[in-house]
Amino acid sequence: MSAESTPGPGIPGGTGTNGPRHRAKGRRRKPPTRHKALMITAWTAAGIVVLGGTGAGYLYFKLNGNLKSVDIDQALGTDRPEKADNGSENILVLGSDTRAGGNKKLGGGTDDGSARSDTAMIVHIHKGHKKASVVSIPRDTLIDRPSCTDTKGDEHPAANGVMFNSAYSTGGAACAVKTVESITDLRMDHYLEVDFAGFQKLIDDLGGVEVTTTKSIDDPDSHLKLKAGTHRLDGEQALGLVRTRHGVGDGSDLGRIQLQQAFIKALLHQVEDVGVFSDPKKLLDLAETATKTVTTDSGLGSVNDLASFANGLKGISPSHMHMVTMPVAYDPADPNRVLLQKKKAQQIWDALEHDRPIPKSATAHSAAGEAKGVVSAP
Question: Where is this region: Disordered (predicted)?
Fold first, then answer.
């Protein structure tokens, strides 16, 4: 990981300036045919900006050393969709289902270092950074994965009719980004990954998150048992909630996605209510955990860059975050898999490309998972 970057606001030597955005040199875009974890990281990293003063230099180097990054641009080259020139940005957010190290107990299986993208979201930040649209990508979607080169330089041939999350397990972050760009024809400006163990500790550091369940949840696979009612979930319970797929709905990944989206909004409410920025110790604990938890693209690979970027997201409230699931239909040949509804999905990609709200027609009559409304913020 390279820690070299122009110092950002609130860091010793920082100027608060941002460099210009350059358009990609690769192929031009074709004319149009007609996200859980990110935001808690954003809020806590943004808090670094307000620290300043005594000890800020030590804190910067300590937190900067925690971060891990991957050079997505170098791995993918210039044959990519162009960057948007309308003030919007797209971030691919993955929840890492790694089986290595501290995640072995949480993820199950063996400590073999293998990993999958258990959760995948495209977070579209609208111009002005006051609104966001989030598109969850079901991990069980059958897609045609393009050939890709991972960040180690290893090449992986294309594959047809494979699960979406195989892109990450095959070629890591670079392959996941390339696959999303091939599906959407949208440039992913940034990449952010959060792992199981880090997510759990973030929730504990925050003091838990309060949610209300309209139905009882009992899923021995995710070790979650909740009666209907209001609960303050600790880290282990929160992880169980965002991973459960058999405790509610139809047992599919689509139901789990609906729980994840509801939990993220509850999490944002909690960050607003807990007074993170007025409590220096809590802020430090969260920043320490957050920087150890995430892996980013090299453009966000330092505390300066991450804090500057995250500081621009503070104005996005839960009420201004529109969350949908990529439109899919159950595969007639296998009910455990889903197929992309390309025409409906194109409405979403066109809306994001032109920085417009996602139309309701894009997600109407799409497979849903039957878990909507089970969890909400109190």
Answer: 1-35, 94-113, 355-378
pLDDT tens track for 142-178:
999 999 988 888 899 999 999 999 999 999 999 999 9
Distance of alpha carbon 378 from alpha carbon 363, whole angstroms: 26
Q: Give the other-Cβ count within 10 Å of 100's Cβ.
A: 16
255/250 Cα distance (integer angstroms)? 7
- CATH level 3 topology of 38-207+280-373: Nucleotidyltransferase; domain 5 (3.30.420)
Task: Give me 116's structure tokens.
Answer: 């999958």
Instruction: Name all contacts of 52-61 with Cβ < 8 Å and 24+ positions apart.
Output: 52/10, 56/10, 56/11, 56/12, 57/12, 59/284, 60/11, 60/12, 60/303, 60/304
Q: For the residues 70-89, what does the mean pLDDT come to?
A: 93
Tell me: the pLDDT tens digits for 246-276? 767 666 788 888 888 888 888 887 776 665 5
Residue 303 has pLDDT above 70, yes or no: yes
Measure Cα distances from 140 to 184, 241, 256, 258 in Å.
17, 18, 12, 15
Give residue 49's identity as a one-letter amino acid code: V
Strand partners, 338: 141, 330
pTM above 0.90, yes or no: no
Identify any residues that bridge with 326 across adjacent strands, giving them in sequence order: none
C-alpha dist (Å) from residue 216 to 59, 90, 231, 240, 325: 43, 36, 11, 14, 24
Yes or no: say if 45 and 310 are a contact pair by the CB < 8 Å rule.
yes
